[in-house]
Amino acid sequence: MIETTKMSGLFYNKNIKKHLPGICFLSLVAMFSLWLVISTVSWMTDEERLPLSHMIIQGQLKHITADDIREAIDSMDSIGTFMTQDVNKLQNALLSLPWIAQVSVRKQWPETIKVFVVEHQPEATWNNRVIVNPEGVVFNAPMSDLLEPKPALFGPESNSKDVLAFWHQLQKQFSPLNMGVHSVALTERLSWQVVLDNGIRLELGRDAREERVERFIALYKQLEKQMNSIDYIDLRYDTGAAVGWKSEDIAEDKEEN
């Protein structure tokens, strides 16, 4: 039994010596691989070695500037490196700018991010506070940013699309008369009021809106030469209209047609 143990131990020692170089080599490979992984991760997360230091901005910018975009990105807690930065977070930061409707962010090796911006297109103002785009969607850009005057729309918060659609309709109907629409308002009681670009106010009420607009067009042809003297036209009747005159010495005249 003792001799068997000695021989087994001798065989085991010889076996270790035989495979020792291979074991050492594998250990070195494993240590080198671990060091390589640690070094790579350190390099990827080191903002000084792999910074996002360049930005390319594309798109037609009218109401925001490249500085606005840079400031929005700089306001993030951490921009990160080329390898670690999530472009979705960059996009969300830029979408916080009120004039940006859509944005796409891409990374370009080794240190560049490319930003493509689509601005909201202003169609009208809404409740004297914010702006409506051509789809009737309200966005919270300040009216002071507008580069040119826009029609003024008013109404309950959920009715911006309806009010804008009616404004478009009136623009088409009044175009042959060489008139434009300055403002359209829908009251809380769902009554319509229109102000033309010549200052005349049209009271359309709740019902028979289309018929009352047609009635005004017919009436306009009769009163065209007197339009500069008219303050308002109340069409909230089954027939005819009430005409309010600007001159103080002329009483309000109700004309039934």
Written as H for each helix and E for each strand, in order along the chain, the element string is HEHHEEEEEEHEEEHEEE
- The first-level CATH class name of the largest domain: Alpha Beta
Q: So, the CATH homologous superfamily of the largest domain? A: Cell division protein FtsQ/DivIB
Strand order of the largest sheet: 6-5-4-7-8-9-10-11-12-13
Shape: rod-shaped
Rg from Cα: 37 Å
Strand and helix layout:
Layout: H1 2-45, E1 54-58, H2 66-74, H3 87-95, E2 100-108, E3 112-119, E4 124-126, E5 130-132, E6 138-139, E7 152-154, H4 160-174, E8 181-186, E9 192-196, E10 201-205, H5 209-223, E11 230-234, E12 241-245, E13 253-255
Parallel strand pairs: 1-3, 4-7, 7-8, 10-11
Antiparallel strand pairs: 2-3, 4-5, 5-6, 8-9, 9-10, 11-12, 12-13
Structure notes:
By secondary structure, this protein is of the alpha/beta class. The chain has 2 domains: 54-119, membrane protein fhac (Ubiquitin-like (UB roll)); 124-245, Cell division protein FtsQ/DivIB (Rossmann fold). 36% of the residues lie in helices and 24% in strands. The protein has a 10-stranded mixed sheet, with helices on one face. It has a 3-stranded mixed sheet with strand order 1-3-2. Strand 2 and strand 3 form a beta hairpin. The relative contact order is 0.06.
